[in-house]
Structure formats: C-alpha cells, structure tokens
C-alpha cells in the first residue's frame, strides 16, 4: 500500500512561509499558503522592513530557482564598520560571498507568484487563532509563519530567552535617492555610543539607484528625533534632519550625498518599528490533539540591529522543510526536534543580537580593535554576516573570541574551532 503524501498548511507569505512552501513544492509535498494579500497588493503596500539577504539565503534561492535578482541586483561585496565616539575606529572587510538587498515587497510578491505558477495552492484571507483547529483537520501539519491576527500570541513566551519586556530601539528606515553608489558596494554599519546605529546599503527596488538608510535609536538620543518624526507632516524637514544626522554621525555616508537630489523615493518607502525581542515556544498542541509549528517571527523576533531576521527565518524554514521530508508523523517529538534544530542556529544569533543592544562587550571590542588594525580580522568580521551562528556563538565568551581570532585564515575565513 502506497503511503499518502503529507499535506502541509503554511500560514503567512513572508520570506519564511514562502521558502517553506517552495521547498515543499519542489520536494513533491502538497503545500497550501494562506495569506491576506495578493502579489499586486504586496507590491502596492508600505515598506515594512529593509532586509539584507546573506549568501546562504541567496544560495537557497538558487536551489529553489527563484534567484531572480542575481543578474540585476547590486552585490554587496564588503562590510563597512564604523564605531564613533571618544575612541573611534573603522574597517572594511570583504564578504566571503556577496550579500544583496531587494525590496521585500518585490521579493515576496514574486516568490508568491512563483509558488502559484508552479501549481501551488494559495488561499487569500485573514486567519484568526480559532481557524487553526479547522486547518489542522485538513492538513497533516500547520506552520504559522506570521504574527498577524494575534497568531503569534498562541505560542507562549519563553522568559529565560526573552530578557527584554519593551523595545530597546526606535527604528526608522527608508529608501533614498541621491546617494552615490560606492565603488565597493557595502553593508555599512555605524555605531554611535549613546545614540544607536545607522545602517546603509544599496537596494533593488521600484526605481534604480536607491539606498536604504535606517536609524536604530536609543531612547533620548539624537536619533530619536527622526525616529519619531512623521514624514507626511514636513517631508523637507524630515530629509534635512536625515542629512544633518548623517553629517554629524556618519560622515562617510554623508560624503556620498548629493543634497540637491537627496529625497525619500516615495512616501510609501518609509517604515517605523519598535520591536520587543521575543522568543516563543516553537509549537503548541491544539485541543484536538494536533500540533502547530511556529516559524520565523512567530517563533523568534529579534531587533534588526545585526540584520539577521530574514536570514534566520529562511534557515528555520529549510530546517522545518527537511524535517517534514524525513517523516510523516508530526507529533510532539517531531515538533520538539524541529525546535531544537532551529534553536541550534537561531539561539546564538538571538543572544548576539541582544548583547549588541548594549555597549560592546570587552572581548567583542577587542575583536573590533583588531579588525581596525588587521585586514584579515576585518575580513573575518565580514565573514560573520554569512555565518552568524558560528560568529555569535564565539562572541559569547572571551575564550570564544580568542579562538575566533586564532582560527582565522589568511582570507578571513574561520578554519576550525569556532
């Protein structure tokens, strides 16, 4: 007797839900994606985030046949770091493989179209928590990859993994014209002690030549003004404030600005966020005895300070997809094992993200100082973006940081021991 192929329900069409759906589809497993918005509505929506996709995420896109932007996007080949303040330092490292930023409205809309065009079932509408029991009767496993409709609240918060009860940064990010592209396109990170962080990088979006600029503001800092400012109230004042802050705190970005051309690309190309970092239980048992798995932001939501939210979500989707292919029994043991595998990667990234929300720890500061002196270490720090689990696991202790430095190869990769 031939065993019936499983049916999987995926709630949410963000990057995690789309990768899971496409991966299962590629493996011949029937999957349905539930989402509120059509691709056309996604493209027409307000910017929700500004994402840099790591090299491993891009390689997974190639494996799925959805690497649509490899030919016309801007490869980020470098990582440019600045620590401003009393003892400033700076370095530029070379990525081991290029990263890239594509407007997530374009990205998610296209991947949802790919899934549908390949025969995937997409169902539109808003789902509530009460709908999960019904779905669990129709599907062998349901994965919740969105927090909308209060769905993430179904998964209990894990207090020991969630040290914050409130947002640690006020974030504002947008897509801007009038910023010259660097000869060596880079993900730029500027840390300003007592104020927060500034991120910058070229973005593939609805018009060419845009740069993503985001401020992560500490409460009461100079950045809070722009984080709380309403662009619609006075667009020119908003843009002038951004220029002034960059001139004071990020002169390397400011030097590439043409003040006559600098402007937000469109009113919709601006987002505000205040995220409370939270880790939730990776699955729940419904009253009918079926299990529902949390994926992406429904499971772990981190501050975007190190830019790994989308990449950890994709890693989790592929981890869950691999586990689904391995068995047809989706019981508590299955859910527990998936949670363990996901946390093995996400845990160090979460701990590193939370640590970065405070002042640099002494051993991390020593790594940064070494990177400013030695190009090999600078390349090693850039390596961390594509291998965040290994890097932030090492940065959890002085001994790990020392091992990281000791195991750097001449091109900035880590040979072993980390």
Architecture overview:
The structure is a single chain. This protein has 418 residues and is an alpha/beta fold. Helix content is 37%, strand content 21%. The chain is built from 14 helices and 16 strands. Strands 3, 4, 7, 8, 9, 10, 11 and 12 form an 8-stranded mixed beta sheet that branches. A 6-stranded mixed beta sheet has the order 5-2-1-6-15-14, sandwiched between helices. Strands 13-16 form a two-stranded antiparallel ribbon. α1 (15-26) links the parallel β1 and β2. The chain is globular. The termini are far apart. The mean pLDDT is 96.
Compute the gyration radius: what is it?
A: 21 Å
Q: Percent of residues in helical segments?
A: 25-40%
Question: Uncertain segments of ≥5 residues (pLDDT<50)?
Answer: none
Q: Which overall shape is indicated by the principal axes computed on the Cα atoms?
A: globular
Q: Name the average pLDDT.
A: 96
Structure summary, number of beta strands: 16
* Main sheet record: 8 strands, mixed
Proportion of beta-strand residues: 15-25%
Summarize, please:
The protein is of the alpha/beta class and 418 residues long.
